[in-house]
Design a protein that fits this description.
alpha+beta
């Protein structure tokens, strides 16, 4: 997991071409103009899922997610949200991949 400000992420990690496309999308984003839905940035190789929702309260029964095929960029345009993380080898599988 990498946590960084948008303008500092390239200093934190090597940026692949797909990750760069996603970050460029965010840098040029006007959150006020987007509607919820999927925006293709580079076909289905790089896309944004625009969502608007009320965050759940922090609880001990929150479920983690892990990916083998995709990389997520979580970008909070407004509001607040708590996110947790744990090393993958310390998690038990609840729903098989």
């Amino acid at each position: 997991m990498l946590v960084a400000k948008l303008d500092q992420i390239a200093q934190q990690a090597a940026v692949s071409s797909r990750l760069r496309k996603g970050l460029d999308f965010l840098r040029n984003l006007d959150p006020q103009t987007l509607e919820p839905g999927t925006v293709e940035i580079d076909g289905r190789e790089v896309y944004a899922m625009i969502q608007s929702y009320t965050s759940r309260p922090v609880t001990n029964d929150a479920r983690f997610e892990a990916h083998r095929k995709y990389l997520d960029i979580q970008y909070l345009a407004s509001g607040t949200e708590a996110m947790g993380w744990a090393p993958l080898d310390q998690l038990a599988v609840n729903v098989p991949y």
